Amino acid sequence: MQEVFTKSMARNIYYGGSMFFVLLFLVLTFDTMQTLPERDNRQNITAQVADGKRLWEENNCIGCHTLLGEGAYFAPELGNVYQRFGQNKEAIKAFIKSRPAEGVAGRRSMPQFNFTEEQLDNIVEFLKYSSEIDTNNWPPNIQG
Amino acid sequence: MQYQSQAVAKLYFIGAIALFIGQILFGLILGLQYVVGDFLFPEIPFNVARMVHTNLLIVWLLMGFMGAAYYLVPEESGRELFSPFLAKLMFWVFLIAGALTVVGYLAVPYATLAEMTGNGLLPTMGREFLEQPTITKIGIVVVALAFIYNVGMTVLTGRKTVVNIVLMTGLVGLAVLFLFSFYNPDNLVLDKYYWWWVVHLWVEGVWELIMASILAFVLIKTTGVDREVIEKWLYVIIAMALITGIIGTGHHYYWIGTPGYWLWLGSVFSALEPLPFFVMVLFAFNVINRRKREHPNKATVLWAMGTAVMAFLGAGVWGFMHTLAPVNYYTHGTQLTAAHGHMAFYGAYAMVVMTIISYAVPIMRGQQAKSNGKQVMEMWSFWLMTVSMVFITLFLTGAGILQTYLQRYTDAPQAFMVVQEKVSLFYWMREVSGVVFLVGVILFALSFLPDRKEQEA
């Protein structure tokens, strides 16, 4: 049989193609990094926000919730929880504080983390900062 | 078995199957927690069970890939493995580090684990799939480097086949991209942007190279079709995987704060992502139809075909379903994501590992294939797992479509927890399918126990 499409052609497509798209991806990444300062709300990353992010991570909040749609799908989206709670920081803190340690019979419930007031403030600041990232208008509505 | 040292793969395969069973048990706990919210609360909260479920998946697949490499690289290179001792040592290091990490997740609150392991010094924890303590991450790097050194030296001093080279590229890519798991800036957008360099570029990039090369190896061995033909297919498949998959990362950049052009780039390239999987289906069926001999291991051939088909459905079709930005706007982070994730991981990666285990284990025992009875049992395990995974996917899809509508699309959007209760019937059906899946996994493991008849003979 005549070989129209040879193995070396296939190999060249593999090497050439992937090299091209790796480079393109790096160029796009570079461009993204240039435009991020206008979108990612970095001017509001305070020490409080940074500490709040650390608390978010060290308590594995992502293991139940989503944040900007990524994480687990067991508990509500938190990227817009600040707006959902009427931009009321105290309401968010009160919710986290009020979780019963033994859960609610038969229902999903959030663990009681026993955060200090300062930690609660930092978490809320982190959630507020997250909610002010320009996400191309996602999520579609207040319910997340 | 051509080379003595290939036997180290067995250790990895046993470890992989054991962890797989563990993964499914935790999956069942999670599934039940979706409908009986306080199940095992507060002892094993959902987030802990989920970490165990997903981390065991990653570890058992990596073990399977390593086992596959230790089995096929010596044979392809035409020489013994560079250091069987190092391979065995690394197995135990990996297993013990993995086990300690899981014990850590289960025994102490995650925040305590983070404190104990010094997350404050170099924070890397608490991000989806990268929940491992920093010291475990360093351990993974050490194991990966030792593994690549071992396999690499074998390839370098032996015959360099296309299968070998593609596998090596995949493995090196896997290790290099994992380094981004150590980068965790305070800026959430940057964090997420580079987090995907590990997660997406693994799953939709380098892992596909590993998967395709393992599949190519098994097809060369079981069909007797000319290596040249198979290698050409292999190049085409992995070329398409990378050409579509690299910029396809864009479908994760829609809503995390990156510029709008990713909506277009992500949509276009990820719409093409099913292509390599479609070609893989053509490849597997074409090669099996043109087979030059009947391999006695029919179960392996079934797994190989199944891998191609299920990877196409799970990664290709279910991925495509909600990958276009206007659709994803409504479906992002819903049960549709879970549906796609389940079938894609099973079809592409779990099944390819079972394919190589199915092929290699009998040979390590000095037979071409298992007894007919054991093969029948293995094929039952194939169908139980595969069919129940189809149902798991369909039920989660049902849940996802309803969720998307009620919570995001209708004029009167309802709250997350309200919607969750409305779709709970789907979660119950998913849980039942999960139990059937577990039966399948156990049958798979049992089918590799030595035959009583053979032992007596």
Automatic annotation (TrEMBL), chain A:
Coiled coil start-end: none
Transmembrane parts of this sequence: 12-30
Alphabetized PROSITE patterns for the sequence: CYTC (PS51007)
Gene3D superfamilies reported for this sequence: Cytochrome c-like domain (1.10.760.10)
Pfam short name (any one): Cytochrom_C
Domain (Cytochrome c) ranges: 47-131
The entry's keywords: Electron transport, Heme, Iron, Membrane, Metal-binding, Transmembrane, Transmembrane helix, Transport
Cited InterPro entries: Cyt_c-like_dom, Cyt_c-like_dom_sf, Cytochrome_c550/c551-like
Keyword hit for Membrane: yes
PANTHER family associated with the record: CYTOCHROME C-553-LIKE
Protein name: Cytochrome c
Species this chain originates from: Thiothrix winogradskyi
Phylogenetic lineage: Bacteria, Pseudomonadati, Pseudomonadota, Gammaproteobacteria, Thiotrichales
From TrEMBL, chain B:
Family: Belongs to the heme-copper respiratory oxidase family.
Main localization, broad class: membrane
Topology relative to the membrane: Multi-pass membrane protein
SUPFAM superfamilies to which the protein is assigned, alphabetical: Cytochrome c oxidase subunit I-like
Alphabetical UniProt keywords: Electron transport, Heme, Iron, Membrane, Metal-binding, Respiratory chain, Transmembrane, Transmembrane helix, Transport
Annotated TM spans: 12-36, 56-73, 85-108, 135-156, 163-183, 195-220, 232-255, 261-288, 300-321, 341-361, 382-406, 426-449
The protein's name in its UniProt record: Cbb3-type cytochrome c oxidase subunit I
Pfam family, one: COX1
Family annotation (PANTHER family): CYTOCHROME C OXIDASE SUBUNIT 1, NITRIC OXIDE REDUCTASE SUBUNIT B
Subcellular location as annotated: Membrane
Residue ranges constituting the Cytochrome oxidase subunit I profile domain according to the UniProt record: 1-457
